[in-house]
Amino acid sequence: MQRVTVDDIQRDFLKYLNQLEAGECFLIVQADKPIAELKPISTINKQQRPFCLCAGEFILPDDFDAPLPEEILNAF
Predict the structure, then answer these.
(1) Is position 72 within any domain?
(2) pLDDT at 44 > cutoff 70
(3) pTM for this one?
(4) DSSP type of residue 74
(5) Spatial separation of the C-alpha atoms in residues 26 and 42, rounded to whole Å
(6) CB-side exposure of 51: number of CA atoms within 13 Å?
(7) Is 28 exposed, middle or buried (0-12, 13-18, 19+ CB in 10 A)?
(8) What CATH code is carried by the domain that includes residue 20?
(9) Is the pLDDT of residue 43 over 70?
(10) φ, ψ at 54 (rounded to 5°)
């Protein structure tokens, strides 16, 4: 991890941004005191879940979105 000052980053932001995109990590220091880490966001390529994964495992009743009975509503 490369140490870099706040002033260095302000002076040449695009240089550090390009290095960041290339995978470089930085420890940002101010007055020789570490204040932050700057590292690229890791992207994890997750596979999408298959469509209709649970097809046929349960039946959705026709009235599933009907209003609840009064006694249940009053319980809330």
Answers:
(1) no
(2) no
(3) 0.53
(4) H
(5) 15
(6) 0
(7) middle
(8) 3.40.1620
(9) no
(10) -105, 25
Task: Provide the number of structural domains found in the chain.
Answer: 1
Q: What is the pLDDT of residues 2-30, one digit of tens each?
A: 999 999 999 999 999 999 999 999 999 99
Measure the CA dihedral 6/8/12/13, to 10°.
-30
CA-CA distance, 17 to 26, in Å (whole number)? Answer: 11
Name the phi and psi angles at 15, rounded to 5.
Answer: -60, -50
Q: Looking at this protein, which amino acid is placed at residue 50?
A: P
- Count the neighbouring beta carbons within 10 Å of the beta carbon of residue 75: 8
In a domain, 33, yes or no: yes
Q: Note down the domain range covering 19.
A: 2-38
Q: Which amino acid is at 36?
A: A
Cα–Cα distances in angstroms (integers) from residue 64 to residues 41, 60, 61, 67, 68, in the given order: 42, 7, 5, 9, 9
Q: The tokens of 53 are what?
A: 């994964």
